[in-house]
Amino acid sequence: MEYKYQIVLIGTLIPICDDIVKLFYHKLGEMNLQEGFYKVIHASNKNEYKGNQPTYVLYFGNPDSNYEDVEWVEKLMEDGNIILPIFYESFSKEIPGILSNQNGLKYNEYSKDKIVDLILESFGKLRNSRKIFISYKRDESSSVAIQLYEALEKNNFDVFLDTHSIKQGEPFQDELWHRMTDCDVIVLLNTNKFLESEWCEKEIAEASVKQIGVIQLIWPDHKLENMAEVCFPILLKKEDFCNEIYNDKDISKLIDKTINQVIQQVESVRARNLASRQDNLITEFLNAARKNGKTVNVQPERFITEELGVKKRRIFIPSVGIPQSIDCNQSSELKKEIKEFSVEEVYLIYDDVRIREKWLRHLKYLNVYLDVKTIKKQEFDLWLKEN
User: Fold this and answer.
1) What angle do CA 44, 31, 57 make, to 5 degrees?
2) In terms of Cα–Cα distance, which of 106, 9, 98, 27 is closest to 267?
3) Which CATH number fits the domain 131-271, given the four candidates 3.10.300.10, 3.40.1000.10, 3.90.360.10, 3.40.50.10140?
4) 295: helix, coil or strand?
5) What tens digit of pLDDT does each residue of 322-378 get?
6) What pTM value is reported for the model?
7) Rounded to 5 degrees, what are φ and ψ at 147?
8) Cross-strand bridge partners of residue 327
9) What is the C-alpha separation between 317 and 348, in angstroms, rounded?
10) Which of 127, 106, 103, 46 has the alpha carbon at shortest distance from 79?
């Protein structure tokens, strides 16, 4: 079998490398992706590396500056591969000079999920935008909400917080629903009176309808609410707060260890939740297509093909959240990769509920000028009848 995706592990390999590989294959299973399309390559089997295939490289640093595999690094860089240097204390000491211009990652106990997600993003199996929505009650948990906003932003997430993320002049509630539609995970601060807020309750209802994963931080002296369909609870204790102050909206703060645990959970939940929402789109489209007599199949790469005749197909790609023009361009590249068939048309399928009208008009505009078109979930049946 030709291995389409290559993960190269080089440098000073230690047991965490095996943990990262195990977690990578675990996430492939959660995302319903076939393991056979992926290969892990070490220096010991570098003859199996193929320079013309998608590759992500992890370079593990050496605390004593005894750099390994430097010559192979040169070859991998010449091939245009992404290389992530991983260090433990000092980048300049542990990573060879040839990688000095690369943006490295300092490894800690919470890094494995982030590393795996970066690999999946590079291979296009997990979208590059890392969007998080914080749901909270202002008069109970503002200080913690702002703390999480800053910590997640620092870890390369695009975070929505109502007080920081909506521009002046924008319709507040429309923009809030729009941004929730496009998020990967909701971090919900479940304080004592959270559900007494009409808008907080509506946010949870929206999350359930769209099956967005909710990480629920449950305040001390409070209880887990069965409020969201896809929920990952974290029970907080007094000790999780600085000076054990948890009920002051202005000064309560989580300790660093707890913040790191929340970020790790966000990384962990993100991939499986996006995969679940993608599966829902695929199922809805398949049901509508077969109802309308179409011959459709799901490919291992998680896109749908419709057979149009001898070696002719059109392709439907599920897009979670709000389709962007870059998604259309990337999807257009798929035409070139499928060489054994003539690909007639490529479409992105998406759920348009709560997407703002101005963005729907933008997508309609792109449909006129780009090769890749978009189809709304609410119009699957009608579109398939007419096409």
Assistant:
1) 30
2) 27
3) 3.40.50.10140
4) coil
5) 876 555 555 556 666 565 567 778 898 998 887 888 888 888 877 777 788 899 999
6) 0.80
7) -60, -45
8) none
9) 5
10) 46
